[in-house]
Write a structure and sequence with these properties.
With 331 residues, this protein is an alpha/beta fold. It has helices spanning 30-41, 55-66, 82-85, 106-127, 140-151, 164-178, 221-235, 237-245, 250-264, 309-328; strands spanning 22-26, 47-51, 76-79, 91-94, 132-135, 158-160, 185-186, 189-190, 198-199, 205-206, 209-210, 269-271, 274-278, 284-289, 292-295, 298-302. Helices cover 41% and strands 18% of the residues.
């Protein structure tokens, strides 16, 4: 019945050099949905597959998102699995994970999430051996390391969202305090995405002007209290949001999209993603966040960020926390 609506042009051919950008989001909880929405409205993928074990909810979400396509650049959005995208997948984004039970230890939660990941990654290795894996589920540093070990993928192609969001929160709160645009603030949170994360005050700057020009010990009490409060609010932001609304979603969706765009468009962005440490700052064989250059190959290289002695000690302590957790895991 539609034959006469669109008349094909027999001379028109789709350019052969254009390869569709393909991705999969595994896990459609609040974070997975925020990632999907953000990536669709920012035209990240030509083909995006959403995967979840709750089939009815999955299909309903795909329908709802699909009905908004007339307002956006086209994305071929589908429900399915990694098997449906195959070896041409660019990025597999994993947001799946189990929720923490009342009274459950962090270690128990980690072990249950590892069991979920083992099942997911078996299919990823089988069907998408050339893809970059972006881990978003928490605890992200441990699960990034687990993903690296299970898949055997090169460390450049196994990335955790790490402290990209923490660094954004840091910049946002500093910008609010200073009354300027957050994009003009250059500051990093490194280490674990969690309680042992480290604020790099020694290099934090606005327009090249250091926020702490003469070192932390030379701040007056009022300045020290204000900056300590900002760091506390960054570190505890997720706890506060979860207390008030039950989960975090929008900001991590945007942060994940930023990483995806850096990969798909080979932007060579410096982002504090989580990746394998191989000796820098005396830290080895664990995944944590430091500034890294991200492009179409994944993690291209690591920035040798100059830390003061206290920041380096705190980063090493953060690595010890992660090592301590991993040593207890039945893996």
């Amino acid at each position: 019945m539609f034959e006469n609506i669109v008349i094909p042009n027999p001379c028109a051919e789709k350019p052969s050099f254009i390869r569709p950008r393909k991705g999969v989001i595994i896990g459609l909880g609040q974070v997975g949905l925020a990632c999907a929405y953000s990536m669709i409205i920012q035209n990240c993928f030509d083909e995006l597959i959403l995967q979840d074990i709750a089939i009815d909810k999955l299909e309903g979400e795909v329908m709802d998102l699909s009905h908004g396509m007339p307002f956006l650049a086209p994305t071929d959005l589908k429900s399915g699995t990694v098997a449906d995208v195959g070896q041409n997948a660019d990025i597999i984004i994993i947001t799946a994970g189990v929720a923490q039970k009342d009274g459950e230890s962090r270690l128990s939660l980690v072990e249950r999430n590892i069991a979920v990941y083992k099942h997911i990654l078996e299919d990823v290795v089988k069907y998408c051996p050339n893809a970059i894996i972006l881990v978003v589920s928490n605890p992200v540093d441990i699960l990034t390391y687990v993903t690296l070990k299970i898949t055997g993928f090169p460390s450049s192609r196994v990335i955790g969202s790490g402290t990209v969001l923490d660094s954004a929160r840091f910049r946002a709160l500093l910008a609010k305090e200073m009354g300027i645009d957050a994009r003009s603030v250059h500051a990093y949170i490194i280490g674990e995405h969690g309680d042992s994360e480290v604020a790099v005050w020694s290099t934090a700057n606005i327009g090249g002007v250091k926020i702490v020009p003469d070192g932390w010990s030379n701040l007056d009490k009022e300045e020290e209290n204000k900056l300590s409060e900002i760091y506390f609010n960054v570190k505890n932001a997720a706890y506060e949001i979860i207390r008030k609304k039950g989960y975090t979603s929008y900001a991590i969706g945007l942060a994940t999209t930023d990483i995806v765009k850096a990969i798909l468009y080979s932007q060579e962005r410096i982002l504090t993603v989580s990746g394998l440490m191989t000796g820098l700052y005396g830290i080895e064989d664990i995944c944590l966040s430091i500034p890294r250059v991200v492009n179409e190959k994944g993690i291209l290289k690591t920035v040798n960020l100059t830390l003061d002695k206290e920041e380096e000690r705190l980063l090493q302590d953060s690595a010890k926390v992660l090592h301590g957790i991993f040593e207890q895991i039945k893996f």
